[in-house]
Amino acid sequence: MTLGSGNLRAVFARDVVDVWVIGDAGTALRADGVAWSVVPTGVSHALDGV
């Protein structure tokens, strides 16, 4: 998975099978305990909180 450049800014984990990370350029990622997936956000600015 290519994430591009930029920083990841915040993480939230409900448990080991529901982890979210957000960052620059509208980046949002979700882990389901097996793999990470890119989640479309529809924005291009930095996200600072989950």
Largest sheet, in brief, is: 4 strands, antiparallel
> What is the overall silhouette?
globular
Percent in strands:
35-45%
Counting helices, strands and paired strands, the structural category is mainly beta
Fraction of residues in H or I helices: under 10%
Number of helices: 0
The count of DSSP E runs of length 2 or more, i.e. the number of strands, is 4
Question: Which strand order spans the largest sheet, edge to edge or round the barrel?
Answer: 1-2-3-4
Radius of gyration: 10 Å
Overall residue-averaged pLDDT value? 90
Low-pLDDT stretches are: none
H-E order: EEEE
Amino-to-carboxy terminus distance: 21 Å
Q: What are the defining features of this structure?
A:
50 residues; mainly beta; four-stranded antiparallel sheet; 4 strands; 0% helix; 42% strand
